[in-house]
Amino acid sequence: MGCYEVSLGDTIGVGTPGTVVPMLEAVMSVVPVEKLAVHFHDTYGQSLSNILISLQMGVSVVDSSVAGLGGCPYAKGASGNAATEDVMYMLNGLGIKTGVDLGKVMAAGVHLQAPGAPVWVQGSDGSEQGYRERLEALRQD
Known about the structure:
Layout: E1 6-10, H1 17-28, E2 36-40, H2 47-56, E3 61-62, H3 84-93, H4 102-112, E4 120-122, E5 128-130, H5 131-140
Parallel strand pairs: 1-2, 2-3
Antiparallel strand pairs: 4-5
């Protein structure tokens, strides 16, 4: 193939499981699933759903970023990347071991933000939750 991986990106965040499945099926007809990666943005709150369906179809490489930081220069106003914390929480819930400490990743997200600035992330239920509140709740568990 000449490369080690093909990363399929939805950088404007418009994909849904209903569009991800046929896209993956088409690509998997010419590229082995072991060579695929996915990259979803969370503009419409679909990144976790898209990641889950990709995992169920055999994809094992997923891009994410701490606190969902980042965005797409071609899509003004679009949300950032899938938050690593949310992806890890989902993977933990599925019994998939990552070997990464979720609390440390969340602490890194807080460290990246300006001191005292309100930090908000979209929760998996679509609501906005305070990032620091989520970190404190995790520390108490």
